[in-house]
Design brief:
Length: about 550
C-alpha cells in the first residue's frame, strides 16, 4: 500500500457524501464505499455500541427513527444543536466526522491511509460552520484539511474536467453560472475563467432550500390525504413518518423520469395511496421554485450582472434532475443549462482537482500524479470572494449597537480593510472589538466570531479617542483582527478562536481555508458580553461615527 500523498476531495453533503481522488493521469476517480456505492447517504445510525453510516443507517431509520441522524449539515456550527441518543450526546460535528471517517475507511482498502484532504462547503457557510467542518475532518483522523466552496469545486471540475475541455486551450474568457441544488442547500456562483485563472466573482443561494423541501411537499400532501380518509394523524408516529419519508424520496425520483407516480402511506393497519403526476408536483412546488428564482435574480442584480454577461449555466446537485428545475433555469437564462457535470460527483471531483493543485509542488504527490498533470495543475490560479460581509459591532448616534461592515460581501480574497473609530465614553478603560460576519441574502443572522480586547488603557481618555481597526480575511483565509490606539501607542491583534474549538481552524468565507493541526499556536480571544468599546461621538457620516 502506498504511503505517497494522494489528492483527495470529499463532498460532505446534506444528504449524500462522496470521495474522489486524482489518479496518475490526473483524472478524478470517485471511490466506491464498502457497499460498492459511489455516493453514501449522509445518515448515521447510533446502534447501541456501534455506529453505522450510509444506506444501512438509512434503512434502519424506519425501525429506529430515534437512533438515526439525517441532514446533520443543516445544523453544522450550531453549538446548541445536540441529539440525545441512548444516553449519548451527539453534535452535528460528531455526525459529520462519522461520515468522513466512513468514506476514509472505505477508500483505505484501495488507496491507503488518507491524512490530507479537501472538504467542500456551501459558499455561504459562515466561519463557524467552516470551523465545525474542519473539526469534523480532524476528528475523523485527517491531519491536514483545506476547504473549498462547493460551486467553485463544480466550476473547477467543469474547467479542468476531461469533457473535451483542456483548460489551457480555452481561448475565450467566460462567465459561468453554477447552480447546485442539493438535498439541503441551493448554491449559486458566477465563476469567471480566463487562461489559467478561475475566479469566483459572485456567490449567493439559500442555505435552507434543497431536495428535502420537495420531499416535504409530498409528505405533507400524503399525510393530509391520509388524515382526510382515515381521521388519523400518521405523522405522530415516527416509524410511519419515516417510512413515508423514504417513500416520498422514491416518488420524487420517479417523477424526474416518469409522468406519474404513486405514493404509498401505511399507518395503524391502514394503507392508502396518493397518485401524483409531474404537473401536479410542479404546481405544489411553486413557492420553492419562486425562492430559487429570487436567488438567481438577486445574485445578478446585487452584482450588476446581466444574462448577456453569462456564457453558460451549469447545473449540478442531485435535485437538479427534476425537470422543473431545468425548465426554470432555462426560462430565466434563456439558454439550456449545461449538464456536462455529473450531478452527483462533480463536487467531490472538483475538490480532488483542487487537492491536486495544492499538492502540485509536493514531490511525493508529483510521483503519483505524473509530471504532465502536476504541470497543468500548477498553472492554474484561482481566487474567490467572500460570501458574507465582515465587520465589528459599533454604537450608532443613538447608542444602539449594530454591525458595521468593513469588508463587503463578494470581496476578492484575500481582503483587508482599515478604518478609524472613536471610543464610546470618557475614561473608557478597555476597547473590545466584537467581530461579526453578516448574514447572507437568505439568512439575516449576524454571526459573532470572537473578540479582540485592549485593556488597561490610561485613565482619562476622552470620548472619541481614535481607535484604528484592521480586519483581514488573510491569505491563509482565516479571520484576523487588529486594533490600535495610535495616540496611546497601544495595540492588540488576534486570530479568532471560537469557543469549544480545540484546534486551529479556518477562517475565510470563500476561498480556501487551511487548518494544519497542531502546527500553530493561536492567540485565544476572550469572549464576553462586556461593554463594547468602539464607536464615538465624532461628527462623521453614516451616523456610525467612524472616520476614515
Ligand atoms: P447534497 O450534496 O446536499 O447531499 P446531492 O447533490 O447529493 O445533495 O443531491 C441530493 C438530493 O438530490 C436529494 O434531495 C435527492 O433526493 C435528490 N435527487 C437525487 N436524485 C434525484 C432524482 N433522480 N430526481 C430528483 N431528485 C433527486
Ligand atoms: Mg452537494
Amino acid at each position: 500500500m502506498s504511503t505517497a500523498i494522494r489528492a483527495v476531495g470529499i463532498d460532505l453533503g446534506t444528504t449524500y457524501s462522496c470521495l474522489a481522488y486524482l489518479n496518475e493521469y490526473g483524472e478524478p476517480v470517485s471511490m466506491a464505499n464498502r457497499e460498492g456505492e459511489l455516493s453514501t447517504p449522509s445518515v448515521v445510525w447510533y446502534d447501541r455500541g456501534s455506529v453505522v453510516v450510509g444506506t444501512e443507517a438509512l434503512r434502519n431509520s424506519i425501525v429506529y427513527p430515534q437512533a438515526v441522524v439525517t441532514a446533520a449539515k443543516r445544523y453544522m456550527g450550531n453549538a446548541n444543536h445536540v441529539w440525545t441518543i441512548g444516553g449519548r450526546q451527539v453534535t452535528p460535528t460528531n455526525v459529520s466526522s462519522e461520515i468522513i471517517g466512513y468514506l476514509l475507511d472505505s477508500a483505505k482498502d484501495s488507496i491507503g491511509d488518507i491524512k490530507r484532504a479537501v472538504i467542500t462547503v456551501p459558499a455561504q457557510f459562515s466561519d463557524l460552520q467552516r470551523a465545525a467542518t474542519v473539526e469534523a475532518g480532524l476528528k475523523a483522523g485527517l491531519e491536514e484539511i483545506d476547504l473549498i466552496n462547493e460551486p467553485v469545486a463544480a466550476a473547477l471540475c467543469y474547467v479542468l474536467g476531461n469533457e473535451g475541455l483542456a483548460f489551457s486551450e480555452l481561448s475565450l474568457d467566460q462567465n459561468v453560472m453554477v447552480a447546485d441544488l442539493g438535498g439541503g442547500t441551493f448554491d449559486l456562483s458566477v465563476v469567471r475563467y480566463t487562461k489559467d485563472r478561475v475566479q469566483v466573482i459572485a456567490c449567493g443561494g439559500d442555505l435552507k432550500l434543497g431536495g428535502l423541501d420537495w420531499n416535504n411537499l409530498l409528505i405533507e400532501a400524503a399525510s393530509r390525504r391520509f388524515r382526510l380518509e382515515t381521521g388519523l394523524d400518521m405523522k405522530s408516529d415516527p416509524t410511519s413518518r419515516q417510512m413515508l419519508a423514504l417513500e416520498a424520496e422514491q416518488t420524487k425520483r420517479s417523477l424526474s423520469t416518469r409522468e406519474h407516480s404513486t405514493l404509498l402511506v401505511q399507518h395503524a393497519g391502514h394503507r392508502k395511496t396518493l397518485k401524483i403526476d409531474v404537473h401536479q408536483f410542479e404546481k405544489m412546488s411553486a413557492t420553492l421554485l419562486t425562492r430559487m428564482e429570487e436567488c438567481v435574480t438577486r445574485l445578478l442584480k446585487d452584482n450588476n450582472l446581466r444574462w448577456a454577461k453569462i456564457d453558460a449555466v451549469l447545473s449540478t446537485g442531485g435535485a437538479s434532475r427534476m425537470p422543473m428545475v431545468k425548465t426554470l433555469l432555462k426560462r430565466l437564462s434563456g439558454r439550456t443549462p449545461n449538464r456536462a457535470l455529473s450531478p452527483d460527483h462533480s463536487i467531490a471531483q472538483g475538490a480532488a482537482y483542487y487537492a491536486g493543485m495544492l499538492l502540485a509542488n509536493d514531490s511525493s504527490a508529483r510521483a503519483l500524479l505524473g509530471e504532465a498533470t502536476t504541470e497543468r495543475l500548477q498553472k492554474v490560479a484561482f481566487h474567490s470572494v467572500s460570501a458574507r460581509p465582515l465587520g465589528i459591532i459599533v454604537r450608532d448616534a443613538h447608542g444602539q449597537r449594530q454591525p458595521y461592515y468593513l469588508i463587503p460581501v463578494n470581496s476578492t480574497l484575500p481582503a483587508e480593510a482599515k478604518q478609524t473609530f472613536g471610543t464610546v465614553s470618557d475614561g473608557q478603560a478597555t476597547v473590545r472589538l466584537k467581530v461579526v460576519e453578516g448574514g447572507t441574502a437568505s439568512d439575516d443572522e449576524v454571526i459573532r466570531l470572537g473578540d479582540c480586547l485592549i485593556s488597561d488603557l490610561p485613565p482619562d481618555l476622552p470620548q472619541g479617542t481614535p481607535v484604528e481597526v484592521t480586519l483581514k480575511y488573510g491569505a491563509d483565509a482565516r479571520v484576523q483582527v487588529a486594533a490600535r490606539l495610535p495616540d496611546q501607542g497601544r495595540e492588540a491583534e488576534a486570530v479568532l478562536e471560537r469557543p469549544g474549538t480545540v484546534t486551529p481552524t479556518s477562517g475565510d468565507t470563500a476561498k480556501v481555508t487551511s487548518a494544519r493541526a497542531g502546527t500553530e499556536k493561536r492567540t485565544p480571544v476572550p469572549l464576553s458580553e462586556a461593554e463594547l468599546g468602539v464607536s464615538s461621538s465624532l461628527k462623521l457620516p453614516a451616523q456610525l461615527m467612524a472616520d476614515g
